[in-house]
Amino acid sequence: MPMTRNTAPALPRLLLLMLLSGLAACASPLERCVSRNTSEYRAVARLLAEVEGNLARGYAWQQREITMTQWEDCPMVVGHRDGGRHVVYRPCPREVSHVERYRVAIDPAAEMRKRDYLRARKQQLAGPAVRAVAACRAAYPEQSAPRP
Question: Is the whole-model pTM more than 0.85?
Answer without folding.
Answer: no
